[in-house]
Design brief:
Strand order of the largest sheet: 2-1-3-4-5-11
Structural class: alpha/beta
Order of helices and strands: HHHHEHHEHEHEEHEHEHEHEHEHEE
Strand content: 15-25%
Helix content: 40-55%
Radius of gyration: 25 Å
Shape: elongated
Number of strands: 12
Largest sheet: 6 strands, parallel
Length: 341
Amino acid sequence: MTDTAPRPTLEAVAARAGVSRATVSRVVNGGDGVREPLVERVRRAVEELGYVPNQAARSLVTRRHDAVAVVVAEPETRIFADPFFALQLRGISKELTAHDNQLVLLLTEGRDDHARVGRYLAGGHVDGALVFSLHLDDPLPELIQRAGVPTVFGGRPGWSDGTTDVVYVDSDNRGGAREAVRHLVGLGRTRVAHITGALDQTSAADRLDGYQDVMGDADPRLVVRGDFTPAGGERAMRELLDRCPDVDAVFAANDLTASGALRVLRERGRRVPEDVAVIGFDDMLPVAEQTDPPLTTVRQDIEEMGRLMARLLLRDLDRRNGGATPAGVVLPTTLIRRASA
């Protein structure tokens, strides 16, 4: 065994900087009332000694843990297979890192995990929570409200309990869907179908509404339910071709669904876009640029959504900034035209 050097103490930093222990504590914990020359001396001493603040002691002073829980209401197999979650987590991580906060990832594989997550959030381990990919029957919102932790949701909340101060970040799902379907109609397509996402999520419901805004009198058989996965896109596309062989355009609820639909169209000998035009939603470059042909899609800035979620939460936590946190932020979408439509 090797001996380890003793951990530098607050007193050692104070001695090196030639200031009081209380001055060091105020500087280290972000307090006010210390003159800039003294702040610089303390910071220099911290760096020279390699002092690391004791987080437990610091929390007693600041009442902050500098840690944020990120709760994803999906099974692990979905989270690690879908680039959407990687992009959103990257945005969250970048923003938290920029403010010296730790990301604590909590996954809910099944119903038993909800109680565990609720207990963790109520236990005072984190300053707040970022929650996304909720389903309409998810118990998480109630558990989070009971835990009393500040929370920002990814996606428009789908529950209606009279709460008006829910903070969320979303994209213009309905407007983006309208633009996609109008583009297909503008190409002269008359049998425009829609493969939905999981309709117990507001993003999928909003995209279906956008499709119906443009195609309100369309054959109801042209709408087939999917689940935001490539396998769901394949299954729905086969069903759609069996129902309506004359379909000449498909608006898919996301890029992964569109990738599955493209595979089935190729299997069935349908040319894209000559026979069937296809549009997705998300513009996830690992998917949209590598499909055959490259995918026309509605772009939402997924990484920026994550960053904005974290930014709103940190702003809410930092009372010194003052001002009210907006209840909901909806980011614009853009149609990105490639070869599939």
